[in-house]
Amino acid sequence: MASPFPKDFLWGGAVAANQLEGAYNVDGKGLSVQDVTPNGVTTPRTEGPTEDNLKLIGIDFYNRYKEDVKLFAEMGFKVFRTSIAWSRIFPKGDELEPNQKGLQFYDNLFDECHKYGIEPLVTISHYETPLHLSKTYDGWVNRKMIEFYERYVTVLFHRYKGKVKYWLTFNEINSIVEEPFMSGGIYTPKEELSDQDLYQAVHHELVASALAVKLGHEIMPDAKIGCMVLSMPTYPLTPNPDDVVAAMQAEQQNDLFADIHARGYYPKYMNRYFKAKNINIKFEDGDEEILKHTVDFISFSYYSSICKSGDPEKGKETQGNLFAGIENPYLKASEWGWQIDPQGLRLTLNKYWDRYQKPLFIVENGLGAIDQLITDEDGNKTVKDDYRIQYMNDHLVQVGEALEDGVEVMGYTSWGCIDLVSASTAEMKKRYGFIYVDRNDDGSGTLERYKKKSFYWYKEVIRTNGANLIGVTKKL
């Protein structure tokens, strides 16, 4: 009996430049929005970099990438998802010429990946808008951002067209609705930002994303360019029709982004919302035509699900990946309160496949947990993270079920395949990796790397193409 995973399934891991590279002011790099958010997305930003910002050093990937890529290769990675720091290429964001030292770093990184047969999967903009663009232009509220982004992606596509086959335009593009500064570089405080300006910024990003698809197909005909959305399955809290409608409306707020990327136009269900909020999206000449340049595949993050109710007094609030909802009484939660719902991944895969009929790519999934570094019986430092193995096994089993359902899934890159600084809380103690990095929340540590128990487990998952998963449906 064979595994349900196709032979060409892209197994790997995912990271973001701002969470692991460090070297925030090295080789001409400019500041990004991440350099002024030392304590996470929900805390006040600072005027400039501060010593308590763990992201300034990250895990020193900028200097240690060869060591880390070698570890990824040992696990058998077929693909490695990372991002390019926009402010490494254009330090301020509005320059006419790129920073060559920044471009060379990614040349070196991609060459190192290819040395081991690992395909890079590159996110063009992953929560790291150049700070100058945020302060000077108010980020994506300003239409000039499309021009700056177009210049940026054109440089990337010409430079790396022989080295990068898979591209993502924006990370979790729908998260701009909840986190406009981190996601959209919008400097106006969230509580002062009008609905009109927020959704005009959304429109500018969507046009820029479609423009990147157009340019990518022209410059790199063999490349595949996808969108990336934060998936958050939303269940009605009860069968009460009011709850079902509330869940439907919440889903539509997220579906908007993938719908436009996959179909090339605004869905009509948003007309009612825009009317109620007095939002009038301003289209410039050519915007409608640009939006018709649809993506080659849909990629998404998946960590948890939430519930919604028509009665705001019902249920207990629970946290998720940037989006909050009502606690599901049938699910357990992680140490950070994210409810664990493996079947939600199967549901998401089926929904997106039925809705778009485009290949799907799970580019983030994993368990943030507090790991304890120990010395095993052989004298090696490690982490016995059976809880992570269980979480990932259960989610991958559901990917197998979706494949059996007939869904086309390109690959799976686990989030934070090596420990890095958390995006939401800016902590090191919230660890996702197969590789433990000796760095602590107070900045102490040697930065040494140690293989966790999950390192060897994932290596076996890749080697067997998922056949070793416990509970996976086998093809007859």
UniProtKB/TrEMBL annotation:
GO molecular function: beta-glucosidase activity
Active site per UniProt: E364
Key words, A-Z: Glycosidase, Hydrolase
A GO term from the CC aspect: cytosol
Gene3D superfamilies: Glycosidases
One BP annotation, GO: carbohydrate catabolic process
Highest rank taxon of the organism: Bacteria
NCBIfam families: PRK09593.1 (NF007158), PRK09852.1 (NF007356)
Family: Belongs to the glycosyl hydrolase 1 family.
Name of the protein this chain belongs to: Amygdalase
